[in-house]
């Protein structure tokens, strides 16, 4: 083995792209003879050392024996200049001056820069100091002085890692933040050598608990057994393995006075009853400090002056925050259990009022409890109600569960906490709480005494006790699957939950049934949807819900008039102040009826209700419903804005299934606006999520979007091939509620494809395969629907299939319907097809009017590709269309409009036959024009034409 094969490649760093780029820039300057300095400042465990190891390995591979590399030794922190001595001793060769002589000099800071320049005389030198905050003060000052004095052409790069950057002020600073969830998950995969055996709930809990700290994640993983990783053995709480990282954070505060530590402990404890990230109430901490016997001025000074606490605290308005969440946990971890419980008790006393205990007071009592306390658990569970946010309710219920002795009751409370976490949009937290439903009794408090194990149960538990824990947990599990798993699995889980809940919790059973119905709808399984909705009790407490279920069953069962009447009653009864779930059902009903304007108005009210009262988990769904309604109404820009926001909300709340539907909506918007790249990207994203999870509705919409883009670009054969399986009978048939929307596109594509074999002029194309059957089914749907565009689209489809003596009247009928319905895009498509038909019939002068109107309408709704297509048809009809000043300077300015179009298509690689299909002319006509193009431009081949037009 050669020496080169023994060099170890640094481990891959995840989520550190910008940090590695900054290091690479520093090394790049160093390798060109320049210099520089960079301070990597981050809390312990955040990856500072890994970044420095990466830089050292990169430089050593290029410039061996050109690195001064040292890690601080905390034991030598009190020895003056011990850090510099260790650094100089790490030199790979002899120094111009021995380390002892350098340190005996009168002014070490003045000598150090010259010494480093001397070492870099023959090769670029990298000086790397890890954990510089653990050096002695004299060494830190000398290193900072040298880093500032070394010039840009010194050939020396100084790289420093520290948890406290204040002594290196004036130097460039790189601050690596916490890893995002994707990067943390990738690190977990690396540590576990593949993630197949890590149960998703365990993965989510580890990522959440690590808070983006890779060292903490490694510590947690090291203490888990294979059974715990796989989810076969329950996790223990609090999770072990964080001790070393928390101790390193606490060590940053060494040297503070006991009084300051007391204030820090009170501030850390006071944040326990607050939402995550909001910090502590400064006034409450001040009152607690005074009650603890501290001087009020001292407490106030500690709270207001960051230097008094080694910059651990930050004061913002009336709140006090820890600089880093792990620093707060470190303060609680270092405190003695008795001191910690005393702080919580003191805060609880200050929060107590004259009436019933408030939830903040109860949370502090729970943190102070040394073990199980059923009475306190009951109070916490009773306090977890509105107006407390869902996240706060989840925390209160989880604390109540940890205080509960009885195993079944504890599981029920963990299930209730999981449901509240789900409603708060925290899917990972919900899964972690579900995993504790059947787990052992965890320790309460912050590392305090373990709660006593529940008494063993002799014999099987009664059925109602089992249902009380299993039913809610199964319901939450099914609702989570509905948003991020296979919807068929979600339906079965929710049906099982409904059966468990029905005898003891009818409202819970009803919620499970509605979730199962939504899963069947997303899967496009109409029989399963009907089966679930028929199980909804007809005497439900909510009459609107009963009408909705009966109406949907009637529509899908073929009793259209009866179903529409029931659904319309619900629309009329929908109140502006209705519950978000009720308003969202009204949006669905309006879309089924085809009343798209009503759907838009109701969708806007539903979105406002969700933003106002929650729950957060419904925000992506509300935005999806509204965007879909706006898309149906032709308001494409609004649909794009709401779908984009919904996509961000779906990612934030862990709802990939909803994200797939929103990608499909965005693909449809892009197919209107003519952005082929965006349509492809969103369509692929929708199909990638729809396939594994069985989301037929999302797949149908995404396929329709891709086909419409093909149609806008003059590729009717490709569009027809995509749409034919969706709109015609067969195993690949599209979603029952959305497939009819794609029929007009299919008919247009099939007819235009059929013209490929037609002769020039007005010869009638061959009949489009399956188009007539699709139109007949569309006619039945349009007759039952109130969709304002349906009559116009039906007339357009009939015009495409009509003989020449009837087509014009059909097109005029379609335009009359458009005048009543509104909507620029669909009207423009009809005008474009009408103009094409007139031009093919040699009625060029008449064609210009519809084509001109189509061009203006497409431009009004920002349908760029469609506008280009209309402009090309208008030029072919003999009317000049402004192509912009740049186009006037190209060789194409010498061509006729028809030659211009043919040249562009041929340059893109389109065959003569495909050009004939796009332009509705014969292949012989294309050949004739192409010969003239070659002669006019002076080219001899298609390749030369492509190069000319490319320039």
Give a verbal description of the structure.
This protein is mostly helical and 951 residues long. Helix content is 63%, strand content 4%. It is built from 47 helices and eight strands. The chain is flat and about 105 Å long. Mean pLDDT is 85; it is low at 1-9, 442-466, 757-763 and 884-889.
Describe, in short, the structure shown.
Pfam families: AAA_16, GerE. This is AAA family ATPase. The chain has 951 residues and is mostly helical.
Give the CA-based shape.
Answer: flat
**Biggest sheet: strands side by side, in what order?**
2-3-4-1-5
Q: Unreliable runs, pLDDT <50, ≥5 residues?
A: 1-9, 442-466, 757-763, 884-889
* Radius of gyration from CA coordinates: 35 Å
Percent range for β-strand residues:
under 5%
CATH topology of the largest domain: Serine Threonine Protein Phosphatase 5, Tetratricopeptide repeat
Q: Distance between the terminal alpha carbons, to the nearest Å?
A: 55 Å
**At the fourth CATH level, what is the homologous superfamily of the largest domain?**
Tetratricopeptide repeat domain
Determine the fraction of residues in helical runs and give it as a percent range.
55-70%
Protein name: AAA family ATPase
InterPro entries: AAA_16, P-loop_NTPase, Sig_transdc_resp-reg_C-effctor, TPR-like_helical_dom_sf, Tscrpt_reg_LuxR_C, WalR-like, WH-like_DNA-bd_sf
Keywords: DNA-binding
Organism: Streptomyces cremeus
């Amino acid at each position: 083995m050669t020496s080169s094969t023994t060099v170890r490649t640094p481990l891959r760093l995840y989520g550190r792209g910008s940090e590695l780029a900054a290091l690479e820039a520093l090394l790049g300057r160093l390798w060109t003879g320049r210099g520089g300095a960079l301070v990597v400042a981050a809390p312990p465990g955040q990856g500072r050392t890994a970044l420095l190891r990466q830089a050292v390995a990169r430089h050593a591979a290029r410039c061996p024996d050109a690195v001064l590399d040292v890690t601080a030794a905390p034991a030598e922190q009190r020895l003056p200049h011990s850090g510099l001595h260790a650094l100089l001793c790490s030199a790979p060769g002899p120094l111009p001056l021995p380390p002892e002589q350098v340190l005996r000099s009168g002014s070490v800071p003045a000598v150090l820069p010259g010494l480093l320049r001397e070492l870099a005389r023959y090769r670029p030198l990298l000086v790397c100091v890890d954990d510089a905050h653990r050096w002695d003060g004299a060494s830190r000052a000398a290193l900072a002085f040298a880093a500032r004095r070394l010039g840009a052409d010194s050939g020396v790069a100084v790289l420093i890692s520290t948890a406290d950057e204040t002594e290196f002020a004036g130097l460039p600073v790189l601050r690596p933040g916490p890893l995002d969830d994707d990067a943390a998950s990738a690190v977990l995969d690396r540590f576990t050598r593949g993630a197949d055996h890590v149960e998703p709930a365990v993965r989510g809990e580890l990522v959440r608990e690590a808070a983006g700290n890779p060292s903490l994640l490694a510590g947690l993983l090291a203490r888990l057994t294979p059974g715990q990783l796989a989810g076969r053995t329950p996790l223990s709480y609090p999770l072990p393995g964080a001790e070393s990282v928390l101790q390193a954070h606490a060590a940053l505060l060494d040297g503070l006075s006991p009084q300051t530590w007391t204030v820090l402990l009170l501030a850390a404890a006071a944040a326990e009853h607050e939402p995550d990230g909001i910090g502590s109430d400064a006034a409450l901490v001040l009152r607690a400090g005074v009650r603890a016997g501290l001087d009020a001025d001292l407490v106030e000074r500690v709270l207001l002056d960051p230097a008094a606490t080694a910059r651990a605290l930050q004061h913002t308005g009336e709140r006090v925050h820890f600089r880093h969440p792990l620093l707060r946990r470190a303060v609680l971890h270092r405190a003695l259990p008795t001191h910690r419980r005393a702080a919580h008790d003191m805060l609880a006393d200050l929060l107590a009022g004259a009436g019933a205990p408030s939830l903040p007071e109860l949370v502090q009592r729970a943190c102070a409890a040394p073990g199980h306390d059923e009475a306190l658990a009951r109070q916490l569970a009773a306090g977890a109600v509105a107006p407390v946010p869902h996240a706060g309710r989840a925390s209160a219920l989880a604390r109540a569960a940890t205080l509960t002795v009885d195993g079944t009751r504890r599981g029920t409370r963990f299930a209730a906490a999981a449901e509240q976490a789900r409603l708060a949009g925290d899917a990972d937290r919900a899964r972690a709480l579900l995993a504790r439903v059947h787990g052992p009794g965890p320790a309460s408090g912050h590392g305090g005494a373990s709660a006593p194990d529940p008494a063993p149960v002799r014999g099987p538990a009664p059925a109602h006790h089992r249902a009380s824990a299993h039913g809610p947990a199964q319901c939450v599990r099914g609702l989570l699957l509905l948003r991020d798993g296979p919807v068929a699995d979600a339906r079965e889980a929710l049906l099982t939950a409904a059966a468990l809940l029905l005898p003891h919790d009818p409202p819970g059973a009803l919620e499970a049934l509605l979730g199962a119905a939504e899963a069947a709808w997303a899967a496009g399984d109409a029989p399963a949807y009907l089966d679930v909705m028929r199980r909804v009790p007809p005497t439900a407490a909510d009459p609107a819900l009963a009408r909705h279920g009966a109406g949907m069953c009637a529509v899908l069962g073929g009793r259209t008039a009866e179903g529409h009447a029931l659904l319309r009653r619900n629309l009329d009864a929908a109140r502006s102040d209705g519950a978000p779930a009720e308003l969202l059902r009204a949006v669905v009903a309006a879309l089924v009826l085809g009343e798209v304007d009503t759907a838009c108005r109701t969708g806007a009210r539903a979105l406002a209700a969700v933003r106002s009262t929650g729950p957060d988990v419904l925000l992506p769904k509300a935005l999806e419903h509204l965007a879909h309604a706006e898309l149906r109404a032709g308001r494409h820009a609004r649909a794009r804005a709401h779908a984009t926001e919904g996509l961000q909300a779906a990612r934030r709340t862990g709802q990939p299934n909803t994200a797939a539907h929103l990608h499909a909506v965005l693909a449809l918007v892009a197919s209107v606006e003519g952005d082929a790249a965006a349509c492809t990207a969103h369509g692929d994203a929708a199909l990638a999520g729809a396939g594994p999870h069985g989301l037929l509705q999302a797949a149908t919409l995404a396929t329709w979007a891709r086909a419409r883009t093909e149609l806008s670009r003059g590729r009717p054969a490709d569009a027809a091939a995509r749409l034919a399986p969706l709109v015609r009978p067969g195993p690949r048939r599209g979603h029952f509620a959305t497939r009819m929307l794609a029929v007009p596109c299919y008919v247009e594509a099939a007819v235009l494809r059929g013209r490929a074999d037609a002769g020039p002029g007005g010869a009638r194309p061959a009949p489009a395969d399956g188009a007539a059957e699709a139109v007949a089914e569309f006619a039945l749907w349009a007759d039952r629907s109130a969709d304002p565009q349906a009559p116009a689209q039906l007339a357009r489809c009939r015009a495409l299939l009509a003989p020449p003596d009837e087509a014009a009247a059909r097109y005029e009928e379609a335009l009359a319907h458009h005048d009543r319905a509104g909507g620029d895009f669909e009207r423009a498509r009809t005008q474009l097809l009408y103009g094409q038909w007139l031009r093919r019939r040699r009625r060029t002068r008449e064609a210009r009017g519809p084509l001109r109107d189509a061009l203006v309408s497409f431009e009004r709704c920002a349908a760029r590709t469609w506008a280009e297509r209309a402009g090309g048809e208008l030029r072919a009809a003999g009317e000049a269309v402004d192509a912009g000043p740049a186009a006037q300077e190209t060789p194409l300015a010498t061509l006729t409009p028809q030659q211009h179009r043919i040249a562009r298509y041929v340059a893109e690689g389109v065959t003569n036959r495909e050009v004939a299909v796009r332009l509705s002319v014969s292949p012989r006509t294309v050949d004739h024009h192409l010969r003239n193009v070659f002669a006019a431009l002076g080219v001899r081949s298609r390749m030369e034409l492509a190069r000319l037009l490319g320039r």
